[in-house]
Specification:
This protein is mainly beta and about 240 residues long. It has one domain. Helix content is about 15%, strand content about 35%. It has a seven-stranded mixed beta sheet, covered by helices on one side. A five-stranded antiparallel beta sheet has the order 5-4-9-14-11, with no helix packed on it. Strands 3-7 form a two-stranded antiparallel sheet. A hairpin with a 2-residue loop joins strand 12 and strand 13. The longest helix is centred in the middle third of the chain and has 15 residues. It is elongated.
């Protein structure tokens, strides 16, 4: 069980200085959530989670099992954008390797074979993830994806993969109060998913309810959801311009 608090400190995505729109950061580095990983491990140790250091490798929980993915949601004045970063090893799926996707049997994954794997991983990692603003949900099941930090072909069957899934939907966020819901459910009982929710300039957060969440600024919320507390919901406002 995870005891204590888990605080994730993430930088907000860039805003358009002219219209306040929030867009995907141009340089999504693989280490974006490195701080989150380190804090999660520290929290696990302090809270009494056994990482099974002396146990056989097959019984030890990996960081990917504890933190299967990291989620970012950004609300602009005319759209909502979300990004899900997933880093997995074959063993995290209970597999010895990625061999079942090696269709030509050459001992590695080609670009085409990796595309098939990416589609299946996207479906798996967004199965429970639901992000809505004013009742409008981002369609993550058909979201675009891209590989990070890996060659386009000849990927080793035992090597980890890192995938970024991104979705954007047009949504007019007018003056007044608005509502949001952030939901995800990690497959492991001790797992958590950090979620960052940020607003464009001129908007302010209102109420926050549900799972562990902390307002890091008037426009940025950082939450941690788990199996026991899988949802965060609340309000934000776009005030009238003076």
């Amino acid at each position: 069980m995870l005891r204590g608090s888990a605080r994730v400190t993430l930088a907000p995505p860039p805003c358009d200085a002219h219209n306040g729109a929030v867009s995907a950061p141009r340089n999504q580095r693989p280490g974006c959530f490195l701080t989150a990983f380190l804090l999660v491990v520290l929290c696990a140790l302090v809270g009494g989670i056994s990482l099974a250091v002396a146990a056989p490798e097959s019984t030890a929980k990996s960081i990917q099992e504890m933190v299967p993915r990291q989620v970012q949601v950004a609300v602009g004045r005319d759209h909502v954008w979300a990004s899900v970063r997933v880093s997995l090893r074959p063993s995290d799926l209970g597999l010895p390797s990625w061999q079942r996707w090696d269709r030509d049997g050459d001992g590695s994954l080609s670009a085409a074979e990796k595309d098939v794997l990416a589609g299946e991983l996207r479906d798996r990692e967004t199965e429970f993830l639901a992000l809505t603003v004013d009742g409008h949900a981002l369609r993550l099941s058909t979201a675009r994806w891209r590989w990070e930090g890996e060659p386009a072909s000849a990927h080793a069957l035992g090597a980890p993969v890192t995938l970024r899934i991104e979705a954007r939907t047009d949504l007019s966020v007018g003056v007044g109060e608005h509502r949001y819901v952030l939901y995800d459910k990690p497959s492991h009982a001790d797992g958590i998913v950090p979620i960052r929710f940020s607003l464009a300039s001129g908007m302010v957060l209102g109420s926050v309810s549900g799972a562990r969440a902390e307002k890091r600024s008037a426009r940025r919320l950082e939450a941690v959801v788990s199996q026991r507390a899988p949802v965060v919901w609340g309000t934000f406002e776009r005030p009238e311009q003076p």
